[in-house]
Amino acid sequence: MKKRRMEFVFVIIIIASGYLVFFTNIPLLWKALCMVLYGVIILITIFSLMLENRSAHNTLLWIYVLLFLPVFGYSFYLYSGQLFLKGYLFKSKRINDREAFGIIGKKEKTPDFSKLNDHQRCFALYSDRVTLTKTNINTQTHILKNGEETFQEIKRKLAEAKDFIHMEYYTFRSDRLGKELIDILIDKVEKGIAVRFMYDAVGSISLSGSDIKKMEEAGIVIHPFLPIKHGFYNQKFNFRNHRKIIVIDGKVGFVGGLNVGVEYLGEDEDIGFWRDTHVVLEGEAVQTLHAVFLLDWEYVCGEMLFEDEHYMKSIPVDGNGLVHVVSTGPETQDMSDHFYAMISCATKSIWIASPYFVPNQAIRTALRIAAYKGVQVRIMVPEINDGFLTQYATRSYFPELLRSGIEIYTYKKGFLHKKIIIVDGDLASIGTANMDMRSFHLNFEVNLFLTGTDSIQDLVAHYEEDLQDCRRIRPVEFYKRGVLERSKESFARLFSGVL
């Protein structure tokens, strides 16, 4: 906190110095003193930056920004450059989460991985050792395709709730779909069922104040995650809760790519058809998914429910295969590590679908090496994205991937929003994390990693169906794109670190 106050003072001094030097007629000596003061602050900042031991090119980049962009460079560094210090910003949550998941881990036994095949065991051993959560056996998963099927199932399960409903969303809109779910939640509260609802303050900015008040007056306990009014200066504005979680009675859980809004039903005329994937699960893994919600809930409002057996009891079912719930965020390891491990363990095929494909160097290297070894690598992205930067930043990675023999497909039927990785047809990831830097480093995410479950075959079948609505990018054709297109790609790639 002391460092934050000092940085705030530095910002005031720098702005004041810049104003006095460029916009006033004070004596030259005073202007010189202002410039010296500005220089001292920049040198102090550069020295602090060097002590952080970042990569050499990253350190040099920020030094150039601080030196050659007066005033603006320092402000931009405080807002974006110090995202490197994300562990400091969420230190309390990291410590609390580690302790809480440790409690769960002591209650659960590590499954027997000896019966898995080589690539499944390769990933399972890694995941079990590095994550705070345990792999679950007694769990069933069912894949939900697109918005209509997903929200029909969500409404059906909400209507069956007998005890409590816990809901956490990145985007929850006050449109027709949002109001329908709000009415269901209010009806359940009136019947004596506890409802807790958490929404991201930025992602759900279109959730109206009147709907929030309506839920509060009905008895729904509702809280925003990292409210905007507290976010800009302490640098938490850029870190968002991208999770989509519903837990009902501790028996049923939902997670995946779908937020709440009519566009996810394909009813937005500007967007058109929306292709997405969600999953409903029952059994032991619901307890782990619920723990992710409860720890987020404690962080935003202080209510401690994690150790309450009423909310954390395990309800196993007869399952097939392994299900591992993995939550990542600024306070924990990156989801990219898990994706890298999956890719590295592949022996036959790697199929990826992501709406935002801005991979880091490690992921790109792993994909290229896999392709060189003869592994079939397929990447599916939208033909048209919902933003200029994401559209062209994604395309900027095509050349190096195509040169490695990787197959790239662009989905033409509508907007592709599902977030899927399938390895060798029997190992899969599905959840909220995109294949981009924001999901890797800035967002709170949660994914399911499935090993040998029947639901993987549904993911495989859906992927093959989606290929019929794709255009394959051919290297010769792509290389003929004009200078303007390449310029757009190069420009957008500059912002990859925050996309």
TrEMBL record:
Catalytic activity, EC: 2.7.8.-
PLD phosphodiesterase domain boundaries: 237-264, 412-439
GO cellular component: plasma membrane
One of the GO BP terms on file: cardiolipin biosynthetic process
Membrane topology label: Multi-pass membrane protein
Active site: H242, K244, D249, H417, K419, D424
Gene3D superfamilies: Endonuclease Chain A (3.30.870.10)
A Gene Ontology molecular function term of the record: cardiolipin synthase activity
Main subcellular localisation: membrane
Enzyme class: transferase
UniProt signal peptide: none
InterPro entries cross-referenced by the UniProt entry: Cardiolipin_synth_Firmi, Cardiolipin_synthase, CLS_N, PLD-like_dom, PLipase_D/transphosphatidylase
Highest taxon, organism lineage: Bacteria
Subcellular location: Cell membrane
CDD domains: PLDc_CLS_1, PLDc_CLS_2
Pfam hit, one: PLDc_N
Catalytic reaction annotation: 2 a 1,2-diacyl-sn-glycero-3-phospho-(1'-sn-glycerol) = a cardiolipin + glycerol
Keyword annotations: Cell membrane, Lipid biosynthesis, Lipid metabolism, Membrane, Phospholipid biosynthesis, Phospholipid metabolism, Repeat, Transferase, Transmembrane, Transmembrane helix
Entry's transmembrane regions: 7-23, 29-49, 61-79
Record-linked PANTHER family: CARDIOLIPIN SYNTHASE (PTHR21248), CARDIOLIPIN SYNTHASE YWIE-RELATED (PTHR21248:SF20)
Function field: Catalyzes the reversible phosphatidyl group transfer from one phosphatidylglycerol molecule to another to form cardiolipin (CL) (diphosphatidylglycerol) and glycerol.
Protein family according to the UniProt entry: Belongs to the phospholipase D family. Cardiolipin synthase subfamily.
Protein name: Cardiolipin synthase
Organism encoding this protein: Peribacillus cavernae
